[in-house]
Amino acid sequence: MLSALVSLLLAAGAVVSASPAYAAGSDLCAETGHNAGFRGDGLVTAIAVALAESSCNPSATNTYNNTPPSRDRGLWQINDYWHPEVSDACAYDAQCNANAAFEISSGGTNWQPWSTYNAGLHRQHMGEARAAVDRLGHHEPGPGPLVYPAESGRVVSARGADGRLEVFAAGSDGVHHAWQTSVNGGWSAWESLGGPAGAELAIGPNKDGRLELFAINGNVFQHRYQLSPSAGWSGWENFGGGGKDIAVGANGDGRLEVFASGPVGVFHKYQVAPNSGWSEWESAGGGPVNSRLEMEKAPDGRLEVFALNGDVFQHLFQTAVSGGWSAWEDFGGGGHDLTVDHNRDGRLEVFASGPVGVFHKYQTSPTNWSDWEPTGGPADSQLSSERSPDGRVEVFAINGSVAQHLWQTGVNAPYGQWASFGTGGTEITAATNADGRIEVLGTSSAGVYHKWQTGFSSWSDWAWLGNTAGPPIN
């Protein structure tokens, strides 16, 4: 794998101010973080990330392994290549750095742009961070980091607790598995896991960091889970009857919630406590039959579910964080596939494909949506999306003839034009490495390929994952 991108980002507009001397670096991060607006778990995490990045040294500079050559600066390590609009005077001022971290992390709810967070390196500093908050004397309630759902489909990927990506692909002979052998690094050979043949897959993290995988086909629904974070896996266990598609997401309290579609609508099942057992299956109150499902998370932490079949597009949402659900609401006409992501400011973005290309709908406020807008793109394509290191949404589409991608021209901004991304295939999904680079997995009847960012807007060629083909996906 090529050297890592710097994935620590800064929003413009922070005001430089003087920073006093502190007995401990963590105290400096605590006070400037609190002044910037971090509260509760968000403040503790902010301090831990800064300790992992710079040891809370406002003069810290890093150039190692930065491609292209560049400098990471200050408490939260602001990179001068990706953000030349940020002067050294701002980047090396503690309060300016904290203000920027507050904005880019959406008030402490989204730490995905920080590689140390993605790799779990901040965890070893959480005790020191809590002690700094205690010394500061601030215990205001505040949001913890949000856990965003991963894309579901015939191939899925998520980062484990140690930052390594794990990939699962559903072939005609069951589910196959590969994983990064090091953070941001190369890949293992594929291993066969058995399980449901020709399945749709979904993956999510338990509150303790253990990944859990779900697989459904027309007759069988099974799941398996890591026995400890970033470690081995259980065998397959029954999870219900068969169906069409599934999606999984983490509640604000850490409990996983699973939705499944079938011939009589959509059902859901949820953990009764974090890292624990499951409820019985319950009707989700209707929903499109045999629909494609995706799940996302609103800026306040409520889960939202989107369901699409050939005739109907509907969605429903939690009425409170970790709480109950709304009734289904109409979201548009039918289509082929969908993907959902979030802007850096938290607003959701929805893309749906159909016979005349890909259409787009987005939140204009927490409770309002735009109309559907055409974007062009491949007809009747499989869709996926992910966020670039600076928070711009990038969309990937593949059908039997072509693969293309589309990206925002700026943070929280409109989109450009579709560009070629390769030849045709059968499925596509995107995930982010611990360093923020997007990794895209594409499938065909020959196996599973991947393609990864080598720069902010440059990509590798398509290659086999782990130099082996993996399962054919038809």
Structural summary, described in words:
The protein is mainly β. The protein is 12% helix and 36% strand. The strands form 8 sheets. Strands 20, 21, 22, 23 and 24 form a 5-stranded antiparallel beta sheet that branches. A 4-stranded antiparallel beta sheet has the order 4-5-6-7, with no helix packed on it. A hairpin with a 2-residue loop joins strand 22 and strand 23. Helix 1 packs across helix 4, helix 1 crosses helix 6 and helix 2 crosses helix 6. The longest helix has 15 residues. The N terminus is likely disordered.
How are the secondary structure elements laid out?
Elements lengths: L24 H12 L3 H15 L6 E2 L9 E2 L4 E2 L8 H4 L2 H11 L10 H4 L7 H11 L18 E5 L5 E7 L2 E6 L11 E4 L5 E6 L5 E6 L3 E6 L11 E5 L3 E6 L5 E7 L2 E6 L11 E5 L5 E6 L5 E6 L3 E6 L11 E5 L3 E6 L5 E7 L2 E9 L2 E2 L3 E4 L5 E6 L5 E6 L3 E6 L11 E5 L3 E6 L5 E7 L2 E6 L10 E2 L10
Antiparallel strand pairs: 1-2, 2-3, 4-5, 5-6, 6-7, 8-9, 9-10, 10-11, 12-13, 13-14, 14-15, 16-17, 17-18, 18-19, 20-21, 21-22, 22-23, 22-24, 25-26, 26-27, 27-28, 29-30, 30-31, 31-32
Helix pairs in contact: 1-2, 1-4, 1-6, 2-6
